Amino acid sequence: MVTPAGLVVLTDRRIAREPLVAVVREAVRGGAAWVVLRERDLPYGERAALADALREVVPPGRLIVAGPDPLGGDAVHLAGADPLPVDDVGLIGRSCHGVPRLSTEDYVTLSPVFPTATKPGYGPALGPSRAAGLAGAVPWLALGGVTSAAEVKECVAAGASGVAVLGAIMRAGDPAAVAAELTAGLS
């Protein structure tokens, strides 16, 4: 089972500086390896169409859909309270803010690792070392407030498989350049 690693981009069309598909295309060009489609407020048909459009610009098999319905794909990322998917899905992740309580999930995001501008006051920030301790042996992604290659390095040094970012990419004037900068922290 391949689990998300490297730079993972979470979508938010409301804060994206350009149309969402264009931002994601540029982030992938800059080095983003995976994308999590959020946009859970969209009507089903619009969200499914957006998933299809994103699959055109994301590496094959690397689009994860937030929520238990993979919208025609094979990967989901669940909120803490979301039920497991009804149908068989190849990859299941879950958002955690403390010790993961897992059943069949393949990976977790732990947040917030750093203070985050996207959710001000959300926390307290875990820090990479505490997040690693909470994850234990479960593959994990650091989420929240990751804005520099140095922070990426700190997370990876603590044991993260990668970092998940939203605001740093969505708000970027040049998503490819920001993605490249963050990806540089992975090595």
Explain the layout of strands and helices.
Blueprint: E1 6-10, H1 20-30, E2 34-37, H2 44-55, E3 63-66, E4 75-78, E5 91-96, E6 107-110, H3 128-135, E7 140-143, H4 149-157, E8 162-165, H5 167-170, H6 175-184
Parallel strand pairs: 1-2, 1-8, 2-3, 3-4, 4-5, 5-6, 6-7, 7-8
Helix pairs in contact: 1-6
Polypeptide structure, described:
- With 187 residues, this protein is α/β, with parallel strands linked by helices.
- The protein has a single domain, classed as Aldolase class I (TIM Barrel), CATH 3.20.20.
- The chain is built from 6 helices and 8 strands, in the order βαβαββββαβαβαα.
- Condenses 4-methyl-5-(beta-hydroxyethyl)thiazole monophosphate (THZ-P) and 2-methyl-4-amino-5-hydroxymethyl pyrimidine pyrophosphate (HMP-PP) to form thiamine monophosphate (TMP).
- Keywords: Thiamine biosynthesis.
- InterPro entries: Aldolase_TIM, ThiamineP_synth_sf, ThiamineP_synth_TenI.
Domain count: 1
Number of helices: 6
- The largest sheet has its strands arranged as 1-2-3-4-5-6-7-8
Question: Based on CA inertia axes, which overall geometry fits?
Answer: globular
Question: What's the CATH class, please?
Answer: Alpha Beta
| CATH architecture field | Alpha-Beta Barrel
First-to-last CA distance: 22 Å
Q: Proportion of β residues?
A: 15-25%
In total, how many beta strands?
8
Helix content: 25-40%
Which whole number gives the mean pLDDT?
A: 93
